[in-house]
Amino acid sequence: MFFARQKKEFGQVVSHDIVQEKVIDALQDALQEAKRKGQLKVESIPTLTLDLPKRPEWGDLASTVAMSLAPSERRAPYDVAQIILDNIVRREALFDRVEIARPGFLNMTVKRDLWLQVLAEIESRGQAYGRMALGQGRRVLVEYVSANPTGPLHVGHGRGAAVGQAIAKLLQATGYEVVQEYYINDAGRQMKLLGASVYAKYQELLGRPVSFPAEGYRGAYIETVAAHVREQAGESVLNLSAEQAEQRCRELAYRELLENIRQDLRAFGIEFDAWFSEASLLASGGVEQVLSDLRARDLLFDQDGAWWFRSSSFGDEKDRVVRKQEGDYTYLASDIAYHRDKLQRGYDLLIDVWGADHHGYIPRMEAVVQAYGYPKERLRVVLVQMVNLLRGGRKVEMSKRAGEFITMREVMDEVGADAAKFFFLMRRSDTHLDFDLELAKQQSAENPVYYVQYAHARIASLFRVAEERGLPVPKPSAADLSLLRDPDEFGLIRKLSAYPSVVQGSAAALEPHRLTFYLQELAGLLHTFYFKHRIMPVAADQDVAEAAAFVKDASEMGKQREQVSPDLTGARLALMYAVQQVLRNGLGLLGISAPERM
RNA sequence: GCGCCCGUAGCUCAGUCGGAUAGAGCACGAGCCUUCUAAGCUCGGGGUCGCAGGUUCGAUUCCUGCCGGGCGCGCCA
Question: Which of A37, A87, A96 is nearest to A65 (CA)?
Answer without folding.
Answer: A87
